[in-house]
Write a structure and sequence with these properties.
By secondary structure, this protein is mainly alpha-helical. It has 15 helices and 4 strands. A 4-stranded mixed beta sheet has the order 1-2-4-3, sandwiched between helices.
Length: 462
């Protein structure tokens, strides 16, 4: 029989409980209202708007509309499940139950019953395991039903499960020392532990930003140097033109898991690398698949009459946009904002760390685990602040995207950037029509029509 863990509503912890739960449901209803507005757009905008003439074919528009509707319907059901589940965990005392189970498992493994670090690591591991198990059916359905239906999934069930297992193992290997360090600093850092916590987190973030592309990402996808040729030569010339310290160029075999495309750069100081997804490149065939590709007979799903990806000039335009983020210091600004935000969160946590009603709100009456307190503050106490901050960051990101487009345009890539945006939007079945409120709240990248209008406006002004 399941017992409820709701605190006395007349106490401080009861009021905090109602506030946290109430805000959670208010946020959920707001998100569902926005999703409803967008689903209405999918259902009603059956005919392409006049301004899409010459940008998107009628057939592609319909495919994008159905794809968007399918994703929205899936999110509706999954979101309801997640909200009910999180409410149930809170109401039924899921956190203290998991903490108690972690203590028993930690003791069984031979650790001291009072040792908080091993119990916290076990707590995180068990929580991650339960989350992975509960999310697996949803992830599988989305991959093999929704993405498969619209031609994006390239994974086999075996690859999918192996990938999930690998991600879980790698994440636990990473989390163990990080979580241990966090708990140790909180317990041993004194009154100003939040300063050490902030410094530790900053070092960890920078460390993983450095090692992830070279040592962790290759565990999941195959990276190979971009072959010699026109594309590589022109990318190197572009990098030299804007003084981007390019050291390596890679192609990642994203087509092994999905038909979606992307490009990004990484690295610090004078050691920058650019990574292109093979799905971004119109003429690219992975080296290990070249012989296979020659023997393979094209199927209807392959649609051999229509190429996907971008040509060389369009890839240069896309990279002009991406490198604009570097030249305009968008990445650096993002890191600074993130670190200032973390400092604020840790400072507040330092003030609330020993506030017992906060722990009793979640059913911790006899113990106050440091890491649990950090989760409560970051995820629940800061929930209203996080929503506002996320909206402001979304607006900031949209502004940065327009700036990066302008940068690419100043390099002489306006025409090719426009055609690349159109191609990539079609390849990814991006629906071009959005409810204004939904788009403003959710889209860190402006919809394609807004970006094209901005590019065309700048061309007329010039």
């Amino acid at each position: 029989m399941i017992s409820l863990a709701i605190p006395d509503l007349g106490t401080w912890e009861g009021k905090i409980f109602i506030g946290i739960l109430g805000f959670s449901w208010a946020t959920y209803m707001w998100e569902e209202y926005l999703a409803y507005r967008q689903r209405r757009v999918y259902r009603e905008k059956v005919e392409p708007p006049e301004e899409l003439k010459g940008i998107m074919e009628r057939v592609t528009y319909e495919k994008a509309r159905v794809y968007g509707l399918d994703k929205s319907n899936f999110s509706l059901i999954e979101g309801a499940f997640s909200q009910v589940l999180s409410t149930g965990i809170m109401v039924c005392g899921g956190f203290p139950a998991l903490w108690a189970a972690s203590g028993r498992l930690s003791a069984w493994l031979g650790f001291n019953a009072d040792a908080e670090i091993p119990q916290t690591v076990t707590f995180v591991c068990l929580g991650s395991l339960l989350n992975t198990i509960m999310s697996l059916p949803w992830s599988a359905y989305f991959t093999f039903k929704v993405e498969q239906k619209h031609g994006f999934n390239k994974q086999t069930p075996g690859f999918f499960l192996k990938d999930k297992l690998k991600k879980f193992i790698v994440s636990q290997i990473i989390c163990t020392p990080v979580v241990s360090g966090l708990v140790y600093i909180i317990k041993a850092g004194g009154d100003y532990f939040f300063l050490y916590l902030w410094g530790f987190t900053m070092v960890v973030v920078m460390f993983f930003m450095t090692v992830y592309p070279d040592y962790i990402a290759p565990l999941f996808d195959k990276y190979e140097p971009l072959p010699e040729g026109e594309l590589k030569t022109r990318i190197e010339l572009l990098a030299a033109e804007i003084k981007f310290p390019l050291t390596k160029l890679y192609v990642v075999e994203g087509s092994k898991r999905s038909a979606h495309s992307n490009a990004y750069f990484y690295g610090f100081f004078k050691n920058k690398r650019i990574v292109l997804y093979d799905t971004l490149l119109e003429e690219y065939t992975p080296l290990n698949d070249k012989g296979e590709a020659e023997e393979k007979e094209p199927s209807k799903e392959d649609n051999p009459g229509k190429k996907t990806g971008c040509n060389t000039s369009e890839v240069l335009a896309v990279l002009g946009h991406e490198l604009g983020h570097w030249k305009l210091n968008h990445v650096l600004k993002g890191i600074i904002i993130s670190q200032v935000n973390l400092f604020l969160v840790f400072s507040v946590f330092g003030s609330l760390y020993k506030y017992s009603p906060l722990y009793r709100t979640f059913g911790f009456y006899h113990t106050q685990p440091a890491f649990v307190g950090l989760i409560i503050v970051m995820q629940f106490v800061f929930a209203p602040y996080n929503e506002i901050l996320q909206f402001l960051l979304t607006m900031f990101s949209r502004y940065n995207e327009f700036q990066a487009d302008t940068f690419a345009k100043k390099l002489g890539h306006a025409v090719n950037l426009k055609s690349a945006l159109i191609k990539l939007n079609e390849d990814n079945l991006g629906f071009p029509v959005y409810d204004p409120l939904y788009s403003a709240w959710h889209h860190s990248h402006p919809p394609i029509l807004e970006r094209i209008r901005a590019l065309e406006k700048k061309q007329k002004e010039d």
